[in-house]
Amino acid sequence: QHGHGPYQPHEPGYGLYQPGYSPYDDQIPDPKSRMLAIQNAKAYLLKSSTTSGLNLYDHLANMLTKILDEQPANAVDIIENISKDVKWAQFQKKMDTLRDEHEILPTFEAAEKHKALFLRANGEGDEELEEEIGETPLPNVMETAFYFEQAGIGLSKDEFYHIFLALKKLISVQPIQTCRFWGKILGLEMNYIIAEVQYHEGEEEEETEEEEVIEEGGKGMGEVEDEDEKKEDEPPKSTYKPPPVIPKEENGTGANKYVYFVCNEPGKPWVKLPPVTPAQIVCARKIKKFFTGRLDAPVVSFPPFPGNEANYLRAQIARISAGTQISPIGFYQFAEEEGDEEEEEGGGRDTYEENPDFQPLSVAEMVGSLSAWVHHGQSILNQGRCVWLNPFQKSEEEEEDDEEEEKAEEPNELQQEIGPPLLTPLSEDEGIQNIPAWTAEASTNLIPQYAVAILQSNRWPGAYAFASGRKFDNIYFGWGHKYSPENHIPALPPPVQAEYPSGPEIAETRDPTLEEELAFKAAREEALAAAEEEEDEEDVDEDEEDEDDD
Amino acid sequence: MEAASLPAALELAAGGGAGLSPEKRAVLGASLLLLQRDYRFERVWFWGCIRGVRGAYYIAEGLGPDRAAPRSRLYSLNCVEWSLLPPVTEEMVAQAEQLKGRFQGDPSFEYEYTEINAEDAERLFEDGKEPMIKEESRLVATIEQIDKAVGIIPRGAFVKTPLGSVRENRNFEGLSLTEAKKLSSYFHFTEPVNLKNKTLLEKADLDPSTDFLDSLEHDIPQGSWTVQLEKGGTVVVLRSLLWLGLTFYHVPMTKQYGYVYFGTGEKNLDLPFML
């Protein structure tokens, strides 16, 4: 009823709006008009702004709601900021606390990696371009791809180009003298892209300490004896001696002639594979397993493979290379004499070089006869090495220490293994049953002038080679297994080993029968009787009666 | 794979290193069309290539209005001239399963039975037939086995009409990326075997128009398919480990899919040891 006045002295507004001096005094004389005035004021406040569409009433309501909700400290000091915030919030969408994350598809990441291949490294100026155009170990992958494509072999052009760039990256990082795209091996989860490289002489990094190959250990040597116990009670010691470990070949020779790098996809970093040991090759010949695509995956098999998937992969690559790396005859020739060519072990020559006088044969000749091709990959012996090594050579010093019975036989048993020498023609390759080892055909019969000679291996399905004029190459696309028309038979476990040799001291003898016992007793009696000459015959009778009671 | 999309499809399925030379690709474009005209097929599929020791067979299949009906199969040695293969019989399949080793590459080559039961030999001798089998029969039996065992399609690509015939689904827009990585999104394109063994609860979820085939989930042995993303994750490639050489590709969220066989035509019986 009183409205706004009169203010008491303690109220703010005291002194303002003195009756009769309020600005609206003349306009608001009585209550009814006051209501009207309030409505007018409210209507004024609700008027929308022409520029922003907001109205003061709503804005003030929002602002006060926000202040009452949040209860900030010193609201009166930040009131202008609060007002600005409320206005700003008008233009923001109401966001849920749960937002749909943009699906980061793995495709985008892979695309990033591929794009990275195409970017030139920073800081490469034009001067470096000239360097690159000179002698480079980078192989012309696209050229190889073209020739293989004529036979319908190969990956898509995109993939080849990515591999090309990935190889270029590899070369820029490692000190590599020669490099070749070896091929692609498929796996369960991921595939492997393999590059075959040779380091510069002397630039090869020293291998870090490799884990020792875990061999089959000998049987336990008996329990630890206390010194107090008598030595006679010891169980017999095992006479098992594990076969000697055949050392792997040096890096740069034999099965380890090349170093292999693998990656799962072009764009991913290249990983170097460890050198291969003969034990791994021997075991790899007995098992047949798919690759998973992860280098650290274990290889669960029987006989147990000494290593993980990286070693198995390396062993298969070594076998494939040894069996299927071929070249047209005459392309490679043996190097000129460099002193001792004949090794002590009787191995053949193991180095070759390009023949500058190579005359390429025509495609028809290359396809028609297998003797126009030769292996330039050294074959691996049964031992697992390319050059045979007698593991007992060093045992001469030990012979004096060990018992001669055991050692004397063994060195004579091992025959030296000899494999086919390097650069043997393919016509010497054995086929499997009635299938020749290689299938040769020309890429096209319609245009023989420009045909390419293609060879497909039947022993290692997936290994191909082409030759056209002076160019040739080998490649592998496959799962990494040898062909066998018979089903794979896993090795059986070895027979149970004898615990200890049986001899009379531990063998159980037969219990004597009654006749033998009687005979023995009779013999003993005779001996007694003979010894006691003074004995009467009555004693003998008594003994006989006693025996009947027994 | 569809003859019409052959070039693109070969690019997508080339991850395994097998493909066709440009000469074959060029001639296939024309000769498959002519096949369609001559035999009045509605669709022609390039099935793949079986490599023999001395030559290779290129195989094409023709489909009629019902896509699930038995298909006509044709083979060629040079992709130019095609010969129709005889329809497959159970006897052919049984005989071919006993043969081992590579194909020779000559369709009139005759295999001799070296390892058959004494009873079979007697039976055959009584019939007056010699125990020989021609490579042609082995070829058609092998193709039938491969199609039956590992010929696959994505789920939803084909629909069964109320009348029972099977046609392509024009509303199929492709599987999503997550779906494409699961084996249950792919079906064997052959008579279903396990469908009736599903529980009622499972059957209630099925859509009879699209889920009328066996999925790959319950294939024996488990793990006989590899699923990989290739080309930077844009193509889903399934490879069979039972018949090495069968490659199925699909670009997610598009209508591109198909399977092709490039191999020696031998079943991988060592599979359980190799996994």
Automatic annotation (TrEMBL), chain A:
Keyword line: Cell projection, Cilium, Cytoplasm, Cytoskeleton
Subcellular location as annotated: Cytoplasm, Cytoskeleton, Cilium axoneme
KW Nuclease (keyword) present: no
Region (Disordered): 1-23, 201-248, 335-356, 394-428, 524-550
GO biological process: axoneme assembly; cilium movement involved in cell motility
InterPro entries to which the protein is assigned, alphabetical: Radial_spoke (IPR006802)
Keyword NAD tagged: no
GO CC annotation terms, alphabetical: radial spoke
Main location: cytoplasm
Record Pfam families: Radial_spoke
Acidic residues bias: start-end ranges: 202-215, 335-345, 396-412, 531-550
PANTHER family: RADIAL SPOKE HEAD 6 HOMOLOG A, RADIAL SPOKEHEAD-RELATED
The protein, known as: RSH4A protein
UniProtKB/TrEMBL annotation, chain B:
Main location: other
Domain of life: Eukaryota
Any GO BP: cilium movement involved in cell motility
Subcellular location: Cell projection, Kinocilium; Cytoplasm, Cytoskeleton, Flagellum axoneme
Protein keywords: Cell projection, Cilium, Cilium biogenesis/degradation, Cytoplasm, Cytoskeleton, Flagellum
A Gene Ontology cellular-component term: kinocilium
InterPro entries on file: RSP9
Family: Belongs to the flagellar radial spoke RSP9 family.
Stated name of the protein: Radial spoke head protein 9 homolog
